[in-house]
Design goal:
- It is built from twelve helices and no strands.
- The chain is mainly α and 256 residues long.
- α4 runs antiparallel to α9.
- The chain is elongated and about 90 Å long.
- The relative contact order is 0.06.
- It is found in: Endoplasmic reticulum membrane.
- Pfam families: Reticulon.
- Keywords: Endoplasmic reticulum, Membrane, Transmembrane, Transmembrane helix.
Length: 256
């Protein structure tokens, strides 16, 4: 009787013991990158290994379209505030100092942070007599090399825009469409007045302020803005049609 009861209970015992075993990080039972309930040293090393393996298996992408969209629409206020504030500080620094000075100060600030953290972790490891290793090892092991296939893809994508830009420049400067060339001439004439008042850095600062303010304002007042934009577009279209009707070359081209 005892043997039979032990035999009947053994499958349940084995199954519970097998289910109690912690799954390895990145395995089928757990989410990738999650650390098991182990010690601090084991957790750090397993997380670093998982980060390195996942980073080396796929190409590193800095920003995606959705991330840029979330930034300019202030979906995450803290993240957008950091990006907006840091870039604005850099542009204001460039307006006051030279490019070499700004780059030198930025590199010195970054080096001071990383060196201080490296020395701090070394002192902590020496005091606690631990062997955690380099604090930036996970990032040092990331494969940042650009493959030839990815490089050719980026070049091909850039060449599409370069070819479009060249065709547009040829059309405008060789007066393929007189109205478009006149629009460019008027725009450049207006830009001479803008250049007399603002320099390039000031225009970049204004552009950043517009990028981080106009989309959120448009999202909030979309209906009213679309109404006034439609009115301005209709008036501009009627004026352009009147100008085209008075130009003999354009009128003949439309008749053909």
């Amino acid at each position: 009787m005892a043997e039979s009861s032990a035999a009947t209970q053994s499958p349940s015992i084995s199954s519970s013991s097998s289910g109690a075993e912690p799954s390895a990080p990145g395995g089928g039972g757990g989410s990738p990158g999650a650390c098991p309930a182990l010690g601090a040293k084991s957790c750090g090393s397993s997380c670093a290994d998982s980060f390195v393996s996942s980073s080396s298996s796929q190409p590193v992408s800095l920003f995606s379209t959705s991330q840029v969209h979330d930034l300019i629409f202030w979906r995450d206020v803290k993240k957008t505030g950091v990006v907006f504030g840091s870039t604005l500080i850099v542009l204001l620094s460039l307006a006051a100092f030279s490019v070499i000075s700004v780059l030198s100060y930025l590199i010195l600030a970054l080096l001071s942070v990383t060196i201080s953290f490296r020395v701090y972790k070394s002192v902590i490891q020496a005091v606690q007599k631990s062997e955690e290793g380099h604090p930036f090892k996970a990032y040092l092991d990331v494969d940042m090399t650009l493959s030839s296939e990815a490089f050719h893809n980026y070049v091909n994508a850039a060449m599409v825009h370069v070819n479009k830009a060249l065709k547009l420049i040829i059309r405008l400067f060789l007066v393929d469409d007189l109205v478009d060339s006149l629009k460019l001439a008027v725009f450049m004439w207006l830009m001479t007045y803008v250049g007399a008042v603002f320099n390039g850095i000031t225009l970049l600062i204004l552009a950043e302020l517009l990028i981080f303010s106009v989309p959120i304002v448009y999202e909030k007042y979309k209906t009213q803005i679309d109404h006034y934009v439609a009115i301005a577009r209709d008036q501009t279209k009627s004026i352009v049609e009147k100008i085209q009707a008075k130009l003999p070359g354009i009128a003949k081209k439309k008749a053909d």
